[in-house]
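Researcher: Let's continue the batch. This sequence belongs to Photosystem II reaction center X protein, and it's 62 residues. Same format as the previous ones, please.
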Amino acid sequence: MIQISNLILAADVSPEVAGSSGFNMIASFFAAALLIVIPAAAFLIFVSQKDSLERTSATRRR
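Model: Same format as before. Here are the structure tokens for Photosystem II reaction center X protein:
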């Protein structure tokens, strides 16, 4: 079984480049979470809470 370090050396990729690439990939995951996932989740929670309040007030009117 080929170890990761042997695979990186066989591909002529320096450890610095591989580390930088890995760091940038993880940083992009965090950026995506901040820019897309968290606002979308907040919006969905807001809408579901608002809908719940509207349904509650609608049942009180009956």
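Researcher: Any comment?
Model: The mean pLDDT is 80.
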